Amino acid sequence: MNDAQREELREHLLQRKRELLAQGDFKPGPNRNDPVGQADEDEQPLNEMNQVILSRRNRVRAQELAGIEATLRRMEVEPEEYGRCLDCDEWIPVGRLRLMPWAQRCVACEHEHSGPPEDGRRRHALDFID
Ligand SMILES: [Zn+2]
Asked: Is residue 30 assigned to a domain?
């Protein structure tokens, strides 16, 4: 990892952070206040489902933002350590960092760390970049 590469990745992180912040929170639409007795009974479960989806999206975004901020802080404190795997001390390939500049572990350690996929969900394709 040379300075130019690190600077490029830092820009990428800052850009992504700006995007996430610009999006703000995903707000669920206003609740409909139908007069009692006229409420559409099919509507309620749908609203609840939308809110679950929205809060999950917010959570994923908050996690990504936290990862980006932690990475930017580490870059500030120990720039020469940026890109080193937290677990095995090997350098994370730059190709992986280009796609996920906030990655803290190499692919092998990431799998070790996060364990098998929960509830059979498919892993994100980026998990396999090496
Ligand atoms: Zn590793």
From this structure: no
